[in-house]
Automatic annotation (TrEMBL):
Protein source organism: Sulfurospirillum diekertiae
Reaction it catalyzes: prephenate + S-adenosyl-L-methionine = carboxy-S-adenosyl-L-methionine + 3-phenylpyruvate + H2O
Name the UniProt record assigns to this protein: Carboxy-S-adenosyl-L-methionine synthase
Gene, per the UniProt record: cmoA
GO terms, molecular function: carboxyl- or carbamoyltransferase activity; S-adenosyl-L-methionine binding
Keyword Transferase: yes
Domain Methyltransferase: 55-150
Amino acid sequence: MDKVFTKPITKQFEFDEDVAVVFDDMLERSIPFYKEVVDLTCKTICHHVKEGAQIVDLGCSTANTLLALHKQSDKSYHLLGIDNAEAMLNLARQKVHAYGASVEFVQADMTHVDLGSKDAIIANYMLQFIRPLQRADFVAKIYQALNPNGLFVFSEKIVFEDKELNKQMIDLYYDFKRQQGYSEFEIAQKREALENVLIPYTEEENKAMLKNAGFSTIETIFKWGNFATFIAKKKV
C-alpha cells in the first residue's frame, strides 16, 4: 500500500526504492483508468504491428505495460524496457521472471540512450518529467527511431488553457484521489514533491510538438479530466 506521502517530505519526488515498492499501487490510485489505458495502449499496438516487431517502453517502471503486451498478443515481439531508476528495473525483472516473459531491460537516461529502430514506442506518463527545453528534441529523437508506419503511443497529465476550467479539472482529480483513500495531507505532500519535477503541457502543445517532430497522424485516443493518451504515426 502506498504510504510514501504520509510523512513530511524532505526532498523532491524521486523514483527511488521507497517509491518502487509501492509504485503499482500508486499508479492505480493516482491515475484515473490506469489499467484501461494500459489495455488500450497494448491493444492499439497489437492491432498495428506484425510478428517480430521491435517495441520499446520508455520509462517502463515495473514493466506493467510490457507484461500486458506479452499476455495479450499471440505474436512474438522483441520487447525492451528502458528506465533510469535501478529500483524500478529490479522489480520489473522480478515480475517478468515470474511470468516467464522475454523482456530486455536497460538502465539509462532516456534523453541519451540509443533507441535504434523500432516499430512501436511507448511512453506512458514519462514525457512530463523531461525538462521542457529538452522535450521537443526528445520527441524528434523518438520520431527518427521509428520505422516507417511506426507508432508512438504515450499518456500524459495535461493542463487547460482556460484557468477556471483547469482549476475545476484539478479539483476533480483531487476528488478522485480522495476516493482512492488518499488523505488531504498526502495529496498536498505529493503536490509539493512534484512541483517543478512534473511539468505538463496542454493537449494542443503536445500535438504541436508531435507535428513539429514530423508525425503525420496525431490523435487523442483517451481522455479523462487532466489526463490524456495520444497516438502518433510516422509516414509510410
